[in-house]
Amino acid sequence: MNELDDTCKRQPTIRTIPNISNLNSNGHIFGGWILSQMDSAAGVEAIRYVKGPVATVAVEAMKFHAPVLPGDWLSVYTSVTRVGTTSITINIEVTVMRQGVEEEIKVTEGDFIFVALDENHRPKKINRP
Question: Which helix (H) or strand (E) holds 39?
Fold first, then answer.
């Protein structure tokens, strides 16, 4: 593999390790904490695309596939899947790297919809690149 191959790899918008304080009563990482990481990452992607402030208006098609465990290395990947007049849909895929496991494991995915905001916090038209 050459240096150019490494730069073409998919990169996470957020990568983090959850804290023990994020555990639920089952000993897994609390789903609400994972959801907040997804919203933050999708917000970054939406802000980058619209070049300004956005607000989350909907969460669609949220699915949990596997638990996140203490010590997992969480990666949140984002991509723009739809751009409307004032709204933008971001697809999110969350994976983990587990101790002793070589490949990433998909733990959750979903689509988050944001609306672009003007200086008065009202929806504004998105200028496409």
Answer: helix 31-50
DSSP conformation class of 22 = G
Helix (H, G, I), strand (E, B) or coil at 47: helix
Q: How confident is the model at residue 8 (pLDDT cuts 50, 70, 90)?
A: low
**What is the C-alpha separation between 45 and 37, in angstroms, rounded?**
13
- Whether residue 7 has pLDDT greater than 60: no
CB 47 within 8 A of CB 54: yes
Q: Please tell me the distance from the alpha carbon of residue 18 to that of residue 30, in angstroms, as a whole number.
A: 10
Amino acid at site 88: I
- Please give the pLDDT value at position 10: 77
C-alpha closest to that of 113 among 55, 32, 53: 55
